[in-house]
Amino acid sequence: MTEEHQHPQGEQPAVDPEVREIHEVPAVEVITTTAVHLMTAAAVKVGLADSPDAKELVDLDEARKLITALAGLITAAAPEISSSHAGPLRDGLRSLQLAFREASPYPDAPGKGPGEKLTGPVN
């Protein structure tokens, strides 16, 4: 530990009361928050950013990876989280998969798009 990060013996660093310790966060919240981060990143990479430079941010290779990771997370987590959480996540994933297909100059065959080996073909 560097000197600037050490605290005198017995003293605790000040903690923002708005910050929660990870052990206090329910698993469903960690899962859904992670899914939302993946969705947001994928949306930007597929060109759905709400900014004037959205088209410049498109990176379909990166979007494919993010969408596939999202599909894996949702597929694995769905039985563990309630349908009230899994349903909207599946809807968001499907929208991203369709947006990817639309953004791609050479669309994948049905069932071959990002995450479709986990979710099945998206039409």
Automatic annotation (TrEMBL):
Pfam families xrefs: DUF1844
Region (Disordered): 100-123
Name of the molecule in the record: DUF1844 domain-containing protein
Organism field: Micrococcus cohnii
